[in-house]
Prior knowledge:
Bound molecules: beta-D-glucopyranose
CATH superfamily of the largest domain: Glycoside hydrolase, family 3, N-terminal domain
Distance between the termini: 67 Å
Number of strands: 27
Number of domains: 3
Strand order of the largest sheet: 10-17-16-15-11-14
CATH topology of the largest domain: TIM Barrel
Amino acid sequence: MKFAFTPVPALAALVFAGSLTFARALHAQFPGMPQPKLYPWSDRSLSPDQRADLVIKEMTLDEKISLLHGRGAHFFSPPGLTGGVDGTDAIPRLGIPAIQMADSSYGVTKGAAMGRYSTALPSNLGAASSWDPEMIFEYGSLIGRELRDQGYNMSLGGGVNLTREPRDGRTFEYQGEDPLLAGTLAGNFVRGIQSQHLIGDLKHFAVNDQESGRNSLNVNISKRAMRETDLRAFEIALRISDAGAVMCAYNRVNSDFACENSYLLTDVLKGDFRFRGFILADWGGTHSTVKASHAGLDMEQPHNIFFGTALRKAAESGEVSQDEINEHVHRVLRSLFATGTFDDPTRGQVPDVEGGYRIAQEIAEKSIVLLKNKNDVLPLSTDTSSVVLIGGHADVAVPSGGGSGQVDPPGGSPVPPPPPHDFFSAGIRPAWMPSSPLHAIMAKMPSAKISYVSGDDLTAAAAAAKSADVAIVFAYQWESEAVDLPTLDLSPDQNKLIEAVAAANPKTIVVLETGGPATMPWIDKVAGVVEAWYPGIRGSEALANILTGAVNPTGKLAVTFPRSDADLPHPNLVLPPPGSLPDFNHLVADNSNIFSVLFQTLPAFQINYDEGLKVGYKWYDAEQKPVLFPFGFGLSYTSYEYSGLKVQGGDTMTASFTVKNTGARIGIEIAQVYVSFPEVAGEPPKRLVGWARVKLAAGASKLVSIAIERDRLTIFDESADTWKMVPGRYNLLVGGSSRDLPLSAAVNLQ
Ligand code: BGC
């Protein structure tokens, strides 16, 4: 029996019949069923902490330990589990439900094997281009609802690692390069998840900014750089969401593994950030028992190698005190109570597919960024009689991000994956979402001739482009967890295709479907560029609306697009030394035990984040490097003018200015405020301190006020181990992107 479809009335009858013990046991196995309110800790008038303490008083040591580790379900899903990635066992005697976790970065994962549908939303970085916290709350709420529908009560989404290395294979899963923007959006994502009474998590704590060698690399970074960049994003996200969980990362930070790093886990996260939930290790990221427990790790996943019998023994011998065990358990229980997960058990039900489609499309429309629009080639004019789409499988599908976040395409991937060539490529292969740009554009332009050519033959592609009014080339860059991109360049074949098409038709538009930034050696030769990211299950419909002008683009980049790899802080990706990683193919070939080596402690290799505070635009600004497209950039089919900046002081500074829509159609402008610090602060040239999405009818103006809280203006003082404000002259800069800031005002702060 699958609990997702368990008939609720049957349980109600059982409870009614008085079979409470049985009901409790049944409930523990099938957490979707209503829970009898029998326990002292069922009293909702008590605080989550009081409720957790009441449970702990009743628990045996074995029961406590059972809440602190996984069940190994990642690889061998035991019968009765929901097909997620793991969690903890129920404690039927005490009414504590099993924690059922599923990856859910841009939708609920691993559904296909169980015949389940879930909505693939635009990638996280795509959605971050909306700069819209309320919409991201909707994004999280939708995922929360679909998790519940499938019987999960904990999300593993909430990726908020900063894009310090844009070739990171998970760039699509994160929220860009600025801590305020990324933290605000990730916080609202988790707030959305938890609004559905589930435990949300933020990950991967911390500085897990590349995938290459992630299980062995040691990040060397100063405290100040960490606190003001990656950790700042977590801090902001936590403040907004009160997340029930944080996942610590695979990598080492300043010598200690993140999951046994007492500075990160205890001093910063549980101390300074006052995090009250539990810390769970990334899958296989636990490397010790006593050290990890002392450092603040609360839960090992997905195994029980260090936090099962080994932790029990350490507790019995006194190496780990009872108080420490209770503290770990308290945090897990507290999150179950604080998020409403205990009080509102999941009920398996059929997801609202249409509702999911609607929201996915709205989000995609706000995510797409118009990067170039020479001579107003877009929107496609109504007298366009023929359009040819070229390449990128635009006849059938849009790409999606891979790895543990991969949402299964309903009905399977319309583009078959390439044959696997090794152990890794067998598990991690591109999947495409069944959303056809060709059909969506045909539906929007019924009287035009819309055709498709694959682009495999350059001569045929150029000929097709020549004979059409407009040529749209679809170019993609597939990204996945566990593998970084060797370069930000598109494949040479795609670059050649774009050049050939652009030479044949002056009205060539490139639609990019990438996880993050891409380089564009052909930029001066094409008329238009649209960044669609991985746009999700309704991506094509959203794109067709943007291309035809039914929707005016509003998205702005949450990452810089550099001109080339050479301009990055680390022009060459820092890779583990050859031979330092296990050879999985060899293991498969000789039938050795993969799992014993998969999670072994590997020798460290070093990565020095000497660029420190200079992440993303802060790097290019400080190094005075020109960029292809700056952070915060995005065009619209209308235009805006900024005027009249006034700054009011006080505890919270307020910047007021006027934005005018100077074009002919309604639009939404994302107005941004940056600050440059007095020189003694030692900061990069500017920092984003606020923004507003301003909706304006054609010709209309609005007075916009943006409050800048004090802590957006502080710096981390390493010697005093605290945040401080540097007195002096600050410059506020206002405009439509990090490199288009027409307004400025100086203020003296004490
Ligand atoms: C990833 C996590 C994910 C976990 C469970 C790990 O490899 O880094 O983000 O939540 O697997 O699938």
